[in-house]
Write a structure and sequence with these properties.
The complex is a heterodimer. Chain A is α/β, with parallel strands linked by helices. Chain A has three domains: about 80 residues, SRP54, nucleotide-binding domain (Four Helix Bundle (Hemerythrin (Met), subunit A), Up-down Bundle); about 200 residues, P-loop containing nucleotide triphosphate hydrolases (Rossmann fold); about 190 residues, Signal recognition particle, SRP54 subunit, M-domain (434 Repressor (Amino-terminal Domain)), CATH 1.10.260. Helix content of chain A is about 60%, strand content about 10%. Chain A has 22 helices and eight strands. In chain A, strands 3-2-4-1-5-6-7-8 form an eight-stranded mixed sheet, with helices on both faces. In chain A, helix 14 packs antiparallel against helix 17. Chain A is globular. Chain B is of the alpha/beta class. In chain B, about 50% of the residues lie in helices and about 15% in strands. An eight-stranded mixed sheet of chain B has the order 3-2-4-1-5-6-7-8, sandwiched between helices. Chain B is elongated and about 70 Å long. The two termini of chain B are about 20 Å apart. At the A-B interface, helix 2, helix 6 and helix 9 of A face helix 3, helix 7 and helix 10 of B.
Chain lengths: ~500, ~300
């Protein structure tokens, strides 16, 4: 599918092959070609630059091993970065319980809204057991209403329409059609309403107003932006315009069965932070799939190949870890962060009391160890129990804890084995951070801090851009306006 | 004539002016042509979907000619000239046959704007005093025939259509017979949208083309590929495959009135030499203009 970008990347990486080690210089040279490949793939100019910068930072910091080709290491970094850039996936759909759920589709002309509406109705009926109602709210394009009716017939899905607008601009009003449709759905016991709105080309104010009105009156639970995978640099403008007007909940990428390199996927996610939900992959009405950032990243880097490389990198890294385990273990014992230290820290905190307030101040992974809604004191006790049930050897080197040791620890501390596994995974994250900080030179620490500073970490009250995850509640335009007002006020205060 | 077209494209591009204007803006900076200036120029060209080849070409030429010189009107004029030199000549429009129907076949990927462009072409041909017939050969997409029928009624034009799901080549065949028998000047053949990677559908397109040739010698006289100005570099792959299958004679660049600039035509010209014949600059049937490269480049800058 993404043969194009693959070709570009492997050509670029050919230059890297055969050179013994990664230096900043050959990374820059190699990634220059990757940058061109990304631009050729229609990734937005600024997004491509930011991506290259992040990959460079990571690649140069990495240790070089004799066993790996540097290009393979960079492929792995790029893969991880791509997955991160396009994820996380929010595959869940939230349905209202006491009334029909309303989904609004919007997008530019010819992006595939009407076909997608049909595909979505089929998916909702067959996979989620819904009884969908398709609403023909595109009154502009000749025969768009007809098209939706035919699709409904083919699928055996209900369609609501009040006819189309006449060329002189008279006829039904799309806003009224949509609100009538929602009331009709209640009577007709449809538990899902899909609004197929008219395509827009001018992302200017006027045509957007109609969408805003539909949004205001019908209060859709979800607003999805339907985007053509072949879109160029403009993807950034259009998705931003729609997101500003409607506060989108998801993106559906269409026509991915072609050879479009699909850079739009990267750009839209990066600019709007709205997750890509579904992808259209064929002419048939069943051809609507869940979006997978892993698969997309693999496609971008080249199918088949990448899996092998990732495997090899993982294998070599584990071999290295085997070799260096003793050395590392010594390092760990030499006052680096062990489970023993961890337990002590927890004890101190428990003695201080007021765990709930403290949690917010803990470094990254630590605060995640307390499941939401659980009493932190209780959680601390559980963690202590688990650590206490380990032998000294296990505490010094948790990596040796296998299935049978895990079972023993679980039995000893009265938890489930998977909880032990989960805890160890989280501890590993914390340890990694601690280890990195300990091994860093002053210069590197400063660099890390500066990186955070650029991301707005040190601005008081500022937040990093977060990926959107559905909560099932879509704010009304009024609520959003109030939120914006509040934010403006805060911004002013800060200044 | 030139002014009128220029105005129209300018209107169409009005919304993009703030972006394209930024190319012009760049030349308002005081200082010298340095690496920073060249990077900015590169960025602005990329953002217009101009693509790697043309962008690198222009940036290199500007570097060679102006590095360390002052930024002034000469640089701006130079960039304009370079952009112009990478485009095809002005469109001669449709080449009508001296006798018998002129057959115009329309092709493109899904949602590129084929049907709307056909409506505009009907209007254009009728305004030139031609007797026009359309063949609704998109029998695949739901209500595609209805959409074209509505346009043909609005524009008062003859239409030949068939059942949903029927063989499009058969409709093309019928249309040729009727156009010949009843003395139509122009026959416009609509086809279903298809991604250029779907070989079986591309073969179907080839079949329609062969039927046309069989019925009317020399037909299709024009094969126009409709490209969406919003699409990026994939437009080049589209043009490449459609050209290979049905020997396109030109491009219709649709949706140039949005925020996209359709810079992919630079790549299409460079790689395939295909000329842009018409540009779609609005939603009404009269919003189709012959492509004028000077006006296009000019409109990007003003």
């Amino acid at each position: 599918m993404f043969e194009g970008i693959t070709r570009g990347l492997s050509e670029a990486l050919k230059k890297l092959k055969g050179r013994g080690r990664i230096t900043e210089e050959n990374v820059r040279e190699g990634l220059q070609a990757v940058r061109t490949a990304l631009l050729e793939a229609d990734v937005n100019y600024d997004v491509a630059d930011a991506f290259i910068q992040r990959v460079t930072q990571q690649a140069v910091g990495q240790e070089v091993t004799k066993m790996l080709d540097p290009s393979e290491q960079i492929v792995q970094i790029m893969y991880n970065e791509l997955v991160q850039l396009m994820g996380p996936v929010d595959a869940k759909f939230h349905f209202a319980k006491d009334r029909p759920t309303v989904i609004m589709l919007c997008g530019l002309q010819g992006s595939g809204k009407t076909t997608t509406a049909g595909k979505l109705a089929l998916l909702m009926r067959d996979k989620y057991g819904k009884k969908p109602l398709l609403v023909a709210a595109d009154l502009q394009r000749p025969a768009a209403v007809e098209q939706l009716k035919v699709l409904g017939q083919q699928l055996g899905v209900d369609v609501y329409s009040e006819g189309a607008a006449t060329p002189d601009g008279k006829g039904p009003n799309p806003v009224v059609v949509c609100s009538n449709a929602v009331s009709y759905a209640k009577k007709n016991s449809n538990d899902l309403v899909i609004l197929d709105t008219a395509g827009r080309l001018h992302v200017a104010e006027m045509p957007m107003d109609e969408l805003k009105q539909i949004d205001k009156i019908c209060k859709p639970d979800e607003a999805y932006f339907v985007c053509d995978a072949m879109t160029g640099q403009d993807a950034v403008h259009s998705s931003k315009a729609f997101n500003d007007a409607l506060d989108l909940n998801g993106v559906i990428l269409t026509k991915l069965d072609g050879d479009a390199r699909g850079g739009a996927a990267l750009s839209i996610k990066e600019v709007t932070k709205v997750p890509i939900k579904l992808v259209g992959v064929g002419e048939k009405l069943q051809a609507l799939e869940e979006f997978s950032p892993e698969r997309m990243a693999q496609r971008i880097l080249g199918q088949g190949d990448i899996a092998g490389i990732l495997e090899k990198v993982a294998r070599v890294q584990s071999e290295i870890s085997e070799e260096e385990r003793l050395r590392q273990q010594k390092k760990l014992e030499k006052g680096n962060f062990t489970l023993e230290d961890f337990r002590k820290q927890f004890e101190v905190m428990a003695k201080m009391g007021g765990m709930t307030e403290l949690m917010g101040q803990l470094p990254g992974g630590l605060s995640q160890m307390i499941p939401e809604g659980e009493d932190p004191e209780q959680a601390v006790k559980r963690v202590q129990g688990m650590i206490d049930s380990m032998t000294k050897k296990e505490r010094d080197d948790p990596d040796i804890i296998d299935m049978s040791r895990r079972r023993r620890i679980a039995a000893g501390s009265g938890v489930e084995p998977h909880e032990v596994k989960q805890f160890l995974g989280q501890f590993d994250q914390v340890r990694t951070i601690m280890r990195q900080m300990a091994n860093m030179s002053m210069w590197q620490r400063m660099k890390m801090m500066m990186g955070m500073g650029q991301a707005g970490m040190f601005q008081p009250g500022a937040q990093m851009a977060k990926a959107k995850i559905g909560t099932g509640h879509r704010k009304s335009p009024k609520e959003r306006a109030e939120e914006r007002k509040k934010k403006r006020k805060q911004d002013k205060k800060r200044k | 004539m030139f002014r009128a077209i220029f105005q129209k494209i300018k209107q169409g591009l009005a919304k993009t002016r703030s972006l394209f204007g930024s190319v012009a803006e760049l030349f308002g900076i005081r200082g010298r042509v340095d690496q920073q200036f060249l990077t900015e120029l590169e960025k602005r060209l990329y953002l217009a979907d101009v693509g790697t080849f043309a962008t690198q070409e222009i940036v290199t030429r500007v570097r060679q000619a102006f590095l360390d010189k002052e930024i002034n009107g000469d640089v701006k004029q130079f960039v304009k000239d370079q952009l112009r030199s990478l485009l095809t000549d002005a469109s001669p429009g449709l080449r009508y046959q001296p006798s018998g129907p002129t057959v115009v076949m329309i092709a493109g990927v899904n949602g590129s704007g084929k049907t709307t462009s056909i409506a505009k072409l009907i209007k254009l041909c009728k305004d030139e005093g031609k007797k026009v017939m359309v063949a609704a050969c998109d029998t695949f997409r739901a209500a595609a025939t209805e959409q074209l029928t509505i346009w043909s009624q609005r524009l008062d034009c003859e239409i030949v259509k068939g059942q949903h799901g029927s063989d499009p080549a058969a409709i093309a065949h019928d249309a040729c017979e009727k156009a010949k028998a009843r003395g139509f000047d122009v026959l416009i053949v609509d086809t279903a949208g298809r991604l250029h990677t779907q070989t079986h559908l591309m073969r179907e397109l080839d079949k329609i083309r062969r039927i046309l040739t069989k019925q009317i010698p020399g037909a299709p006289h024009e094969v126009l590929l409709v490209l969406d100005a919003t699409s990026g570099q994939n437009a080049i792959a589209q043009a490449e495959n459609f050209k290979k299958t049905v020997e396109c004679t030109g491009i219709v660049l649709a949706k140039l009135d949005g925020t996209a600039k359709g810079g992919a035509i630079f790549g299409v010209k460079q790689k395939l030499g295909l000329p842009v014949k018409y540009v779609g600059v609005g939603e009404k049937p009269e919003d189709l203009e012959p492509f004028d490269p000077e006006a296009y480049v000019e409109a990007l800058f003003e």
